[in-house]
Write a structure and sequence with these properties.
The chain has 299 residues and is an alpha/beta fold. The chain contains ten helices and ten strands. It is globular, with a radius of gyration of 20 Å.
């Protein structure tokens, strides 16, 4: 089932009644079944949400995302008890061997570089060497092919636009970094939600290891999906002149959650595909699978 994504930017009171979310603002009051909500983005310092409503959302495995003063996602609430064998899943994840983690990271980076290469060819119309770079990714990506690919990718990504000579990919940078960062934050939240739903601990990554990162595993698993955001941002740049995020642009970026991706046997919305990927990772930790099930981003 495709869950709804809600973006709330006005002064609003959010409560619950009869398993419905009651959203009341100055101009109107509306209700929506909590079971239908996958993502709730709160982007106003004067939003009030009751604890009963918040708890019901979390129990439903809804990702509640809170934005900061810069209107970018700043944190999120996730269900920490969403799987029936939670302790066993945690145990398998914690005890995963270093060789297994290195193999999983190798698979992840191969998928990421492959997707970057496909998107770059779609945008520029030119062949590239990303397939060759994929063949050079070692266990644990010890040769840092991810970095090599990223350098080539961003150098070419905007070569046909006014940004061809001045774009630099930065976490806190000028346009269109603000678009990219917002999209990545939404993708990160969706990935974290899927991993939590499979009983996995987001704090314990397979590659990202910063002691300050509470979502290291989400940062790992979202890597191959990043080109979905890149493609959407490129599209927005063609269709909008605005260089600052507004409601329309945020709503457009939220639509990546329902974008179609492709498995061998079926196609699936991104938010559902992430659940399949998370479930396959959990099976890798138990030894039931050897590869993470990543979808193809284009058919």
């Amino acid at each position: 089932m495709i869950k709804k994504s809600l973006l709330i930017e006005n002064k609003t009171s959010i409560t619950s009644k009869n398993l419905q979310l009651v959203i009341k603002s100055v101009v109107r009051e509306s209700t929506i079944p909590i079971e239908d909500i996958g993502f709730l983005v709160l982007d106003n310092p004067e939003i009030y949400i009751s604890l009963p409503a918040l708890n019901l959302l979390i129990e439903n495995n809804t990702s509640v995302i809170v934005c900061g003063n810069n209107h970018h996602p700043n944190g999120m609430f996730l269900n920490l008890n969403s799987h029936h064998i939670q302790q066993e899943v945690f145990k398998n994840q914690i005890e995963a061997s270093i060789p297994l983690k290195k193999q999983l990271w190798q698979q992840t980076i191969v998928e990421k570089i492959s997707n970057q290469g496909i998107l770059l060819e779609k945008i520029t119309g030119n062949k590239n060497s990303f397939e060759f770079l994929c063949s050079k990714v070692l266990s644990g990506d010890t040769s840092n092919m991810e970095g090599v690919a990223a350098s080539q990718y961003w150098k070419s990504f905007f070569e046909q636009s006014d940004l061809s000579t001045k774009f630099k990919r930065e976490r806190f940078g000028d346009y269109p970094n603000n678009f990219l960062n917002y999209g990545y934050a939404i993708l990160r939240a969706a990935t974290a939600r899927a991993l939590s739903g499979s009983g996995l601990l987001n704090t314990l990554g397979i590659h990202h290891k910063s002691k300050y990162n509470a979502f290291a595993l989400a940062d790992d698993i979202m890597e191959p999906f990043r080109p979905i955001v890149d493609e959407k941002v490129f599209e927005l740049m063609q269709n909008y002149e605005e260089q600052e995020l507004n409601t329309a642009l945020k709503s457009e970026l939220l639509q990546i959650l329902t974008r179609t991706v492709y498995f061998k046997e079926e196609k699936s919305p991104l938010m559902v595909a992430l659940q399949k990927t998370a479930s396959s990772l959990q099976q890798c930790y138990t030894g039931d699978r050897k590869k993470i099930k990543y979808p193809k981003l284009w058919n």
